[in-house]
Design goal:
It contains 8 helices and 10 strands. By secondary structure, it is an alpha/beta fold. The protein folds into 2 domains: 32 residues, no CATH class; 197 residues, 2-enoyl-CoA Hydratase, Chain A, domain 1, CATH 3.90.226. The protein has a 6-stranded parallel sheet. A two-stranded antiparallel ribbon has the order 1-2. The protein has a two-stranded antiparallel sheet with strand order 8-9. Helix 2 runs parallel beside helix 3. The radius of gyration is 20 Å and the shape is globular.
Length: 237
């Protein structure tokens, strides 16, 4: 049975949460899920880092995710994470920091790419113990893009090259794609209209070793429960 909570304001007047649900979620009633040992973490829109993005942008702020991940790691009730991704990319440092944090957690994790996992979303898609992509979802692989004032000196190139290597090293450590194949896809010309790179759709991401499986939410839950069971067996030994 679903129940709407009535709140009372300082004047003693009943305040129904229906209007808040409509405003925030577009519905009058929110389904209440039973207590679960699985935590669902979403990365949606553009990843916001040290620079605040315009208010019309749909963003995921890394300073919001990091405290959640720390709390998940310390929680005794949470046993696994489903990372749901639909991102165009964003701040390289922030995205890589989130991916590094997730990859070093002791809790089993599964990523599910829906819609897209582009740019710095690629490291986030592969940072979990197992990765799944929807059949219609896409992933764009391309070199780092620079914005703002760029100094035309060799040191600038060296800096960008080092940052690119950090990303490539992380990706190739956490999935089955080879460094040569990833670089080939990243530097491919003729596919993107105004850029260098490659777009992989669903099964193509699996065929190239970037993602483990094509599937959906149910597949992610089945795999995560399997990993949780194996993790418990390992702790019991």
């Amino acid at each position: 049975m679903l129940v709407l909570e009535n709140k009372t304001n300082t004047n003693g007047q009943a305040k129904n949460s229906t209007s808040e649900n409509i405003k925030e979620y577009g519905t009058t009633i929110l389904p209440k899920a039973p207590p679960s040992n699985i935590y669902y973490l979403t990365i949606i829109g553009q990843i916001e880092g040290h620079q605040i993005l315009p208010p019309q942008n749909k963003t995921t702020k890394y300073e919001h995710l990091i405290p959640q991940l720390v709390a998940i790691e310390e929680s005794e009730d949470i046993e696994g994470i489903v990372l749901i991704i639909n991102t165009v990319g964003g701040d390289v440092e922030a995205g890589l920091a989130i991916a590094e944090l997730i990859s070093t957690m002791s809790k089993p994790s599964v990523s599910l790419v829906l819609g897209g996992g582009h740019s710095i979303g690629v490291p986030l898609s592969v940072c979990t113990d197992y990765s799944i992509i929807a059949s219609t979802a896409t992933m764009t692989i391309h070199p780092i893009r620079m914005s703002g004032v760029i100094i035309g000196v060799p040191q600038t190139y060296e800096y960008v090259n080092k940052m690119q290597k950090r990303i490539v090293n992380f990706i190739t450590r956490h999935c089955k794609i080879t460094r040569d194949r990833f670089n080939e896809l990243m530097l491919r010309t003729g596919e993107l209209a105004n850029d260098v790179g490659t777009v992989l759709v669903g099964e193509e991401a699996v065929e190239n070793g970037l993602i483990d499986q094509v599937g959906g939410l149910n597949d992610a839950l089945i795999k995560l429960k399997e990993l949780i069971s194996l993790n418990k067996e390992g702790e019991g030994q």
